[in-house]
Structures are given as structure tokens and as C-alpha cells.
């Protein structure tokens, strides 16, 4: 997600997106262990998006 897209989200939408990304992160960890992961940078991209969403929630208060 891009920063401007994240800023447009409401608090509830941000929370839903965080839970979705956490599930993706969980699945990527298993793929990494099994050697099935093709794009290793995706792990960091998801973590950064989660952090951006948490920041967005904090700024909305």
C-alpha cells in the first residue's frame, strides 16, 4: 500500500488491513522455512505496511 492510500483509511479499515497483513506475514514465515518463498523482500514490505497502519491509527486519535 502507498502512504496516501493508508491515510485515506478509517480506523476500522486500518485494523482490518492489519489483521489481513498479519495473516499474510504468518504464511510467508512458513514459506520461508520450507524454501518456497520467491520474493524475500515481501516480508519486509508487509512489516513496514503494518507499522504504517499502526502509525495511521495513532495519528487519527
From TrEMBL:
Keyword Ribosomal protein on entry: yes
Family from the record: Belongs to the universal ribosomal protein uL29 family.
Keyword Ribosomal protein in record: yes
Biological process according to GO: translation
The protein, known as: Ribosomal protein L29
UniProt xrefs under SUPFAM superfamilies: Ribosomal protein L29 (L29p)
Keywords: Ribonucleoprotein, Ribosomal protein
Lineage, opening ranks: unclassified sequences, metagenomes, ecological metagenomes
Organism of provenance: marine metagenome
NCBIfam families registered for this protein in UniProt: L29
GO molecular function, one term: structural constituent of ribosome
GO cellular component: ribonucleoprotein complex; ribosome
Amino acid at each position: 500500500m502507498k502512504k496516501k492510500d493508508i491515510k485515506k483509511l478509517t480506523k476500522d479499515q486500518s485494523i482490518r488491513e492489519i489483521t489481513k497483513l498479519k495473516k499474510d506475514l504468518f504464511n510467508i514465515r512458513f514459506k520461508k522455512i520450507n524454501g518456497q518463498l520467491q520474493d524475500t523482500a515481501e516480508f519486509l514490505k508487509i512489516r513496514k505496511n503494518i507499522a504504517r497502519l499502526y502509525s495511521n491509527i495513532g495519528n487519527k486519535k
